[in-house]
Amino acid sequence: MKSVVLNKKVRGAFVPRSSNVELPFVAVTFAMTVDGKVTTKNYDVLVGHGTIENDNVRLGIPREDLRKERIARGQPPYPIRVIVSNKGRINPGLKIFESDFAPIIIFSTTRMPRKTREQLQGKATLYLSQARHIDLRWVLQKLRYDFKVKYVACEGGPALFRSLLEQGLVDQLNLTIAPFLFGGKNAPTLTGVNVDFLPRSVRCSLKEMRVVDDECFLTYSIRHPERSRLPRDSFTRRLGRIPSRKL
To answer: Is the overall model pTM greater than 0.85, yes or no?
Structure first.
């Protein structure tokens, strides 16, 4: 795999930064306690650096029936795995880098340590921006334009979700309410531990609600009329219990 450093002088490496470029449909999935604290729970998968470090998962699809469904739709059995990290301090020893069943793409900045780049170059495709922060809209445009990605499943964490919300890039929120109370002043909510309000309120429309045992599964639609996006046709989520060991 290759390492790519984005540079304004290298025109060929760029997708046009235009609001008219069609973006993938983005669905964000979270599990939340009754008191509003985020827990962990596990199309193409987008995660933040903190989530992949904390959960240390491979981001695969363990169920064979779901892999067969993807193949029947003309997709590869496993989704592309995408990691975003502003600082790029990613541990090359994580489980995700031990498997090669699907490509791994990392969007970061030139702040990524040189040693980390060298260790990851053989395991993932790196896109390194010279800006201090990743342009998430451009990331989605890149996924749609170069990798033909139509649907993105964002598995967190809260900081990434907040950034996507602030830029109007989320289409759907899949939220599971787990029957637990965590407490904790500094425990993250859906939008992280940032004490500031969002720049503007985000309107959510409840599309579906299901109760399975003690858990409640909610699906919200988030509308942004100004965005060019794909329809939500077949982007449905699978219900499943949250493993207690994760809580």
So the answer is: no
Residue 158 lies in a domain: yes
Can you give the CATH number for the domain in which 34 is found?
3.40.430.10
Residue 244 lies in a domain: no
Q: Is the pLDDT of residue 226 over 80?
A: no
Task: Answer yes or no: are the C-beta atoms of 176 and 242 closer than 8 Å.
Answer: yes
Distance CA 216, CA 205 (A): 16
Q: How many domains does the chain have?
A: 1
Query: In the numeric block, which tokens belong to residue 170?
Result: 């989320």
Structural domain for 25, as ranges: 3-7+21-42+44-236
Alpha carbon distance 21, 46 (integer Å)? 19
> Helix (H) and strand (E) counts for the chain?
5, 11
Nearest of 68, 70, 129, 79 to residue 103 by alpha carbon: 79
Residue 138 counted as domain residue = yes
* DSSP symbols for 88-146: ----TTSGGGG--SS-EEEEEETTS-HHHHHHHTTTSEEEEESSSS--HHHHHHHHHHH
Least confident of 136-140, 177-181, 241-245: 241-245
Q: What is the DSSP string of 66-86?
A: HHHHHHHTT--SS--EEEE-S
